[in-house]
């Protein structure tokens, strides 16, 4: 960025410039004299300044004023192979730094000896060491009144902590180690103070899965228990809340973090294990979550809270790779809509949802379009993306109208990146704090115009980075050149008419950031999962049990926290889709084996099973014949019936069929939603149609044969009996009437007449015709096969 820091040495007015030049000359005179007294030290400094490592662990106060005593503490370690003797640590003050680039140079080369530096403060304001053995670290602490440093005009000074001593190879004093830092000097209130907005990001990685328990409370399931570690005392998120509660900051919060912690605090959450198992979260961690939420509620009371869309969606990935996939932007709108509700429910404050924050504040036209598509009209950019092109000698205010009613709120890159990197070592953290304060003061001295500056640090600071941020902000808020302001107020401040408002082209987007984006295939999978969810939800009687957890999981699939973790992102999306498939498969058709139909019509049952805990409905079961000319379902090619099943139950749906011909017919059962969309997998089975089965025909044929044989036997027996009776009675008995007692032809004793089919006779006799040739029925039990019950 073409900032003032890189162009100017200008100040607010000619009078102030003359005053500063005079102060610099006065301050530089004794230092120059000191350098001239040590002509031999210059070459030796450059040669041996890395023999001893100097670490500056603390500098207090970070921004001293008149009357203060500056205390510098740290350690010196002999990294060479020879013992150092006659060593001492002293302080040296250089000339004021006049540009922001000069401040960067000191910070980037903090362990390198400069070409020339000021004289040591000397006297009692140093610490001596008789000897430093190789590999041995020694602590030092030097306290010096500020007035002994001979600081001149207001500004930023280089402060060197240097160790000088002798080695066996060079038995004279020489510079053996140095640590350069920065000392902001503004003893009285500045004529004009910079309005500084410091964003305090409260975000975390994705922790919750899409799975929930089957009970009424829908116990949430977490992928791991790492969130509890962050919330515990000393953890990253615990530090962010504890440090932020006393600072004038704008809280920037991901609602997903609040939802996740709230799920831990109010219910019995579970943690995924191997092989699809899960274990209960500990009561201790549940208590930690409750305590953290209570602390956060107190910390944000009365402060500005900005809510990002749920799960902090990656706006750049969405703009570059997601907009070509149908439905992707709707997820951003959904994430924005739920953000305010989540924050208000958990923290009891009403947040602002007017801001969008692309990763690293990098923007291009497509990102701006996507960022504002869900209702946000202010986009947090960064000065290394929205670079100045007008050659301004100062850093302009943050707010920039970029057209279409949208405001780009441009954070200062130098201030925003001051706390990146490993700050676990005290020396690195101290340098980061001093660098931040120096840049802030130098920015304020650029012009008499009051400006609004935004600091947007990394999204998820570590605990050590948060501590350094808090230390710097505490010093800044207690200083004399800055005043705090909320982000909303900064975005509404009058913009600088000379500041750039041109959004950089897509080709200017950093390649390093583009490589970390979610690919198009990720958004295609998200769209596929959403389509499955839409198809599943319509059959549910309580959609919220499924739509809510899966809707939030889909939001999490688009999170910016997946950058640099593509493998984990792929795994998460796959797990969400697989779990949805598993739930949808709980409502299904039961496989059916071959069905045999004996006769022209029959009823076929098809079973639908619901293993969900809630009832399902709005389903239609269709049974379709693949050969309707041979087998019809309900009188046509297919028949449909509505389906409603209670949770944990099955239902058999019966279809009437009619067959026109014998043979095997394939039948397909398929569930549909009421709007005609297929649901689940079809079930196919064969129906074997036989009008009369061979077994039945065999039985019938055998029965008919027995009847014929029995009838024939009875007929012959009666004929024989009648013949014998005629022989015994003689001719005189032939005229007896049929009504006489004992007449074998009496109607009350006659067997029913046999049909033609039973007797095999072809005569035209009717059932009512007399049968004079039929013998009387015997009262004795008939033998086997003689009597047929009807």
Automatic annotation (TrEMBL):
Region (Disordered): 55-78, 482-514, 722-790
Pfam families: DUF6049
Residue intervals passing through the bilayer: 696-715
Biased composition (Polar residues): 68-78, 498-509
Biased composition (Low complexity): 55-64
PROSITE patterns: TAT (PS51318), TONB_DEPENDENT_REC_1 (PS00430)
Name of the featured protein: DUF6049 family protein
Naturally occurring in which organism (per UniProt): Streptomyces rameus
Source lineage: Bacteria, Bacillati, Actinomycetota, Actinomycetes, Kitasatosporales
